[in-house]
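Sorry to interrupt, but I need a hand with the structure work. Could you write out one complete protein record for me, on any chain you like? Just paste the record in under my message, thanks.

. . .
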Amino acid sequence: MGIGIWQLVIILLIVLLLFGAKRVRNIGSDLGSAVKGFKSAVKDEEKTDDNDDSAKLESSDEGQTIEGEASKVKDQDKT
């Protein structure tokens, strides 16, 4: 009940007729380079996040515990 191989072949032939082989090849290469650029950007972002986290851990002092009591403050009418 899904798309079979013959439906994909027919769709590919229609796309080739509409755009031409050269244009479809250019679109494919542009799409491939865009995906490659996206993947490299994600890897670079993960590396910078890891470096930032490790730098924060190295530069931070030991944690201090702050003791206290939480209380709820009710809104007072301003009259």
Notes: The chain has a mean pLDDT of 80.
